[in-house]
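Students often ask why we bother predicting the structure of a whole assembly rather than each chain alone. The short answer is interfaces. A chain on its own may look different once its partners are present, and contacts between molecules only exist in the joint model. In this exercise we take two input lines together and write out one structure for the complete complex. Read the inputs first and try to guess which parts will touch.
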Amino acid sequence: GQQLNQSPQSMFIQEGEDVSMNCTSSSIFNTWLWYKQDPGEGPVLLIALYKAGELTSNGRLTAQFGITRKDSFLNISASIPSDVGIYFCAGHRIDSWGKLQFGAGTQVVVTP
Amino acid sequence: ETGVTQTPRHLVMGMTNKKSLKCEQHLGHNAMYWYKQSAKKPLELMFVYNFKEQTENNSVPSRFSPECPNSSHLFLHLHTLQPEDSALYLCASSQATGGADTQYFGPGTRLTVL
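Now the answer. The structure tokens for the assembled complex follow.
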């Protein structure tokens, strides 16, 4: 299926730094979701966004639903070692029930 | 048990074997999904069930056969698989309100086909 464009593909950062990643699409979405996946585990939902312009925080994580409804970004502030993992964006188009489209993921590596 | 559970967590099978993956959701959801996750690729949707009825088969080969006896349980029956079928198979569930469904994933089954 159609893939979301997620960038960057990977990030190597030092503990305490902030992290930013984003997803873009040529289609309009009604939902943006951000997941984190640890090795050997399933994706865990971090933040769900349902309205254009919506800005939502979950602890040190902040995500926004783009005004154009074609993009979203995720920020992690003051990274810690347990932030290591792969972060996926996913989007839901209203004309494709049950079909989430996923980005390829952003691998985050945090060094002490 | 809470959330979405999957068994087994790891499975190694030969190409002539028949095995089944099991998924159970404890969230009161009505929709369940199977995904395939291969290395370096985005998640691939395989099947969608809504209120026990299959609503999506994303051109999946017939060697994968899903079964959804009720809204809480989902199976994936495997037979005569190929080595390229080795992957992490993820189950997910959602409320299935017909709108912006948020999907919750299980831990996955790591499948290796020899």
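Check your guess against this: Chain A touches chain B through 27 residues (CB under 8 Å).
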